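Hi R.,

Here's the chain you asked about this morning:
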Amino acid sequence: MKKSVLTILMTSLFFTMFSAQSHQVVAVTMMKAPPMIEEEQTAISPSETPEPDTKQDVALLLNLPVKNMNDVKKVTKDQFSVTNYSIEEIEMLAKLVNGEARGETFEGKVAVASVTINRVLSSKFPNSLKEVIFESGAYTAVSDGQYDQRPGPESYKAVYAALSGQDPSSGALFYYNPDIATDDWIRTRHIIKEIGKHVFTR
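And here is the predicted structure, written out as tokens:
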């Protein structure tokens, strides 16, 4: 009798201990795991585009000398072969952009500057910015005097972008405003794209 009671007590004790351990395991497994602390990732900001406001700023960004206005430095970019530019030419191009594309978007301004550069690089046109810009009848702004107005900061930014290799015109050699163009020949050229009020062609 005592042996049976002892057996029952030991069995009961065994089940009690086993039950307590089971509850502990369940309690542990049901607990939320502590949140993993992720390392803070530093946001990679896009490279800032330089914003020159004057011809001197453009010259400095292109490593062109500022003190000696007549000096030039070779500028090599993927878009074109080695070409020489002076600080005077930067000013000429900025004045042209201002006169030809003053009401256009920044992209439109860069495109106009790019067309001028593309002409310099083409065998169909003179091989200097000055000769291209002042070629007879080439640019309305030169003919009607708008070229002589002082360029704004965005014109210099557009010149820098174009001289740095950006070409929104996709290699165009001509552009015109279809709403006011009177030359029928220009309308026969293959259209590459439209940017703002200008149509760009080859």
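One quick note: Residues 100 and 189 are 20 Å apart (CA to CA).

Cheers,
M.
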